[in-house]
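Field: COMPLEX_INPUT
Field: COMPONENT_COUNT = two
Field: RESIDUE_TOTAL = 586
Field: MODE = joint
Values follow.
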Amino acid sequence: MSNVVVLDNGGGFIKAGQGGERNPAVVIPNCLYRPLTSKKFLHPTATFSSSPDDLTSAAIRRPIDRGYLINPDLQRDIWSHLFTSLLHVTPSSSSLLLTEPLFSLPSIQRSTDELVFEDFGFSSLVVADSPSLVHLYETSCRPCGLVSEAQCSLVVDCGFSFTQAAPVFQNITLNYGVKRIDLGGKALTNYLKELVSYRAINVMDETLLMDDVKEKLCFVSLDVERDLQFARKHGKDNLFRCTYVLPDGVTHTKGYVKDPEAAKRHLALTDGTSPSEAIETKNETDQLGVMDKTAERKRVDLTKNEFDLTNERFLVPEMIFQPADLGMNEAGLAECIVRAVNACHPYLHPVLYQSIILTGGSTLFPRFVERLEKDLRPLVPDDYQVNITTQEDPILGVWRGGSLLASSPDYELMRVTKAEYEELGSARCRRRFFR
Amino acid sequence: MDDDNSNALRRMSTRTRKVAPKMAAALGSSDNRSQAALARLEALENDNAGIEARSKGTKRKTRQAKALENARKAPRSFLELLHEANLESLPPHVPSYLRAAVGPPSSTSRRHFCSVCGFSAKYTCVTCGMRFCSCRCQNIHNDTRCMKFVA
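Field: COMPLEX_OUTPUT
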C-alpha cells in the first residue's frame, strides 16, 4: 500500500502528515505573509507565535474564505511548498486524504480536484468532512464510551472561518441536520482589532499581533452582566484590566502580556462565588502583589506602546454565544446546537445531547465549556442529560481522525484513483464520497 | 402620537417632531443602517483591512501588463461563487450551504453595548443609531465616528 498524506486544509492552519501517525508532522498557517521588510510574499515556516521574524504590519493572503477554497493558485503555491520542502513526499506515488467543509460548491470541488490530480498528480484522493473524522477519532479513543456504543455524536466545530454543529450517525454526517453560524476565529480577531483600534491604538494592520492578543487574553464570561460591573471598577480593584505591550522592533519583536499573573485573575471568579467572596480572593492576591504593584507602577514608561484591555476580553468571545449583540441576525451557539439536534430523528435526540464533542481552535478560550453548558441546559428538555466532551487538542482532532481513517482497511475502498478521475471527471467521482 | 393633542397639559417629548427629513427617510427605509451593519459584518471577514488599498497601483502598468492580469483568472470572492452556484433554485428539502445557516435567534431581545467603552448602553445616537452609555461617551462618539448618513 502506498503512503497516504493526510491534509486537513483549514482556513487558519494546514495540518499535514503521514497517515497512521499520532500527530501531524507539519502545522503551518494556511497563508502567505509579507513583512514590511520584504517585497515578496513569503511562506510561513512555523506557527507565527514561535517564529523569530519581525511580523509588524505583515500583510496576509489566504486561499480560503469562509472555510471554502476560493484561490486555487495561491493554494497550489502553499501546497507545493508544503509537499516539497516540509513533508518531502512525491505526490505521484502517494494518496491524499483531504478534508473539505460540508456543502462545498460544485465549482470549488472541481477546482480542488484539478489541483490534486492535474497540478500535483496524486495517485488517488479521498475527500472527507471534518465532523465524521472527529467522530471517528473519539470513538477510537473511548471504545466503551457512549459515543462509540451509540455510534452517534454531535460535533461542534468552532473553527477559524465558521462555527457549526453537525450530527454524525455511524460515521456519516447527517447533512440535513448541520447548522452553521458565520462567525469564527477570524471574525473574533477582526472584532478585537476594531475595538482596540477605536479605543486605544490603531492596530488595523496588525492581524498577527491581535491573534496573539486574542489567544492570550480573551476568555468566556459566565455571567456577562456581573462581569461588566466588575470591569467598571478603577485601579487594582479591576480584576480584568490587563496590559499588553506592543513590540517595539528593537528589544523585542513580539508583543507580550505585561503581567501574566494579573491576566489570570479572572479565573478566581467562579460561577458560584458571590461578588463579596470574589473580592476576598482578590484581596489576597492583592496583598501578595502589593510590593510588585508599586514597583511596577514606577516601571511604566511612556516610550512603550501598550494598551489596556478590560471588558473587551470577554465581550469578544461573547459574540459566538450571542451574535445578535453584534447586529447579526443569527442565533447563538447553544441555540445552534438545539436546532441541529431537532433536525434529526427524535430517537436520536437524547443520545446527541449526551455526546456533544467540542473541537476547533476557538474552543480554547478559558471557560468555553462551562458557558456552553450554562446556556444549553435551559434549552434542552429536562429528561435529557447534557454531556459535553472536549478533545485534548481541539486543533488537531480532525487530523487525528483522518490519520486513523487512512490506516483503516476501508480507506482502499473509498478512494478515487487518478485513472478514474481522468475517465469519469470530477462530478462522478465525487459521488463516491457521499457528498 | 396623534391622540396626545387631546391632553394639552401633559408635557410630551417633542423629539419626534424635530427629526431631520433625511433621518426620517432613513428610519423609514431602515436601509442605511442595515446596510452599514452589513458592511461592518463583511469587514469582519476581511484579511487585511488597512493594507489592501496600499498594495495596489504603485507602478504604472503597460497595456500588455494589464491584459496579462485580466487573462489570469482573478480569484473571486466566496460570495460571488455562491451566487453563481444558484443554490436558491434547489428544492427546499435538499441540504445546501444556504439551508445550513442557523437562522435568526428565537428571542428578539438584544443586549446593547456602548460603542465607545463597551459597557451596557442605555442611549441611542439619534443621528446614526449607534449606542452609548453616558454623556462622556456621547461626546466621544459625536467627535469620532458618528456616521451622519454617509450612505
